[in-house]
């Protein structure tokens, strides 16, 4: 089966989308509800909007990159100033659940409720209705995709099964939905997130070596570039925004910027591009 | 948009706090106590015993060589069990901080139990080195919601327990910023996270590989470079039983040399940093 080459805008060789998950403390609260009683555990998440975010925004500015921020509704309610700042600096805001809940464990009705709550909060705070959705860490179901299509979302960026965008087609009247797939190896959490109690990762693996992680991200970029694919990175300011790790992000951006035939786009731009191809 | 530059004494660019949690076998005893017969598991306990017996003298020698101050957080039981290294730390002019009596997890305790541990340990410090601790680091895991208020009321100047910042701040008590200062350490600057290991009982929980010295040194250096760039407060959180191994102490020396190759770094104890913050911010 041929690896069909995708023709990107302006004959770019590959595409890059930088996505940021602003989970704040809701990552910890959704995985470990008991951490509501654990100030230290919550403080790890609070570092994201309070410290890491500003550094991430500055790095994006410095390299002229417009990113897509996936934000749980509760984060937006808790940190409205930070969310407005992201909007002011020109980035896209997309849906990431309301309490960063695990959609795989929710009934269809509860999923619908959470999608609506998250959507309403983001619209109220940013003035724009989100068109993109990323399932919070955890799972999702086929119904999640159908609900997103019913609500008029343009894309999901939640699944892992490809390295280029594709279309979810549904039977009946339901409109299609673009999927912008992800990869764990292009995410900062698996390498860097850590806590003792509650244990994260579950087996309390070591924090990875910074130089080797940067090398992995660069090598994957080289591969996506070689094959002409869509490279979607996923960072959280609580993880990438430490004084030492922000340098990794800057180095990765500089590495990508060395090539001028890369289309750097937001998730929304990629979804619109993919949808247009479908309609041809 | 850049971060507002913090002010440090004598125009220093950033602050460095070298901190050592002298837990000895308390962490292992706590980890083993839910296993039948765990209190008699002398092999895992011996990992901890290495700290006060072998590592502390080596660490003190290194600090002397570079004329650096440090803060040692010591459970009072460890102080009683290893009086010689404990008193030696004080004699060399380093700071001794509170770290529970038996490295208890404060989030699991009532206020009364917490207060009892706080006061009992302070009495031991006073008896052994003539003064109480002014700083506190919560032993493994979280503290309870009421802990900072208890510490503040007990007269503590600061804590070094949370993870939410890379500079000190005034802890909010009863909705207001207090003069109880927090100097947060971070997991990525903790040697235990990288090197702590045992086969049975398992440490870490999933028995991951031991990190390489080279990779950890690289991480610690890159973080320092970031703290220096932004002018923050770099809190290295080490454990004598981990960092005091012959090869790792050389790694620590290389890290110190890297830090000292930068001009205008303020090496300070937690107490000095907290005093500065109280005064300035």
From TrEMBL, chain A:
Residues 39-265 form the NodB homology domain. PROSITE patterns: NODB. InterPro entries: Glyco_hydro/deAcase_b/a-brl, NODB_dom, PgdA-like. Pfam families: Polysacc_deac_1. PANTHER family: POLYSACCHARIDE DEACETYLASE FAMILY PROTEIN (AFU_ORTHOLOGUE AFUA_6G05030). This is Polysaccharide deacetylase.
From TrEMBL, chain B:
Gene3D superfamilies: Glycoside hydrolase/deacetylase. It comes from the Bacteria. Signal peptide: none annotated. InterPro entries: Glyco_hydro/deAcase_b/a-brl, NODB_dom, PgdA-like. It holds the Pfam family Polysacc_deac_1. Residues 41-268 form the NodB homology domain. SUPFAM superfamilies: Glycoside hydrolase/deacetylase (SSF88713). PANTHER family: POLYSACCHARIDE DEACETYLASE FAMILY PROTEIN (AFU_ORTHOLOGUE AFUA_6G05030). This is Polysaccharide deacetylase.
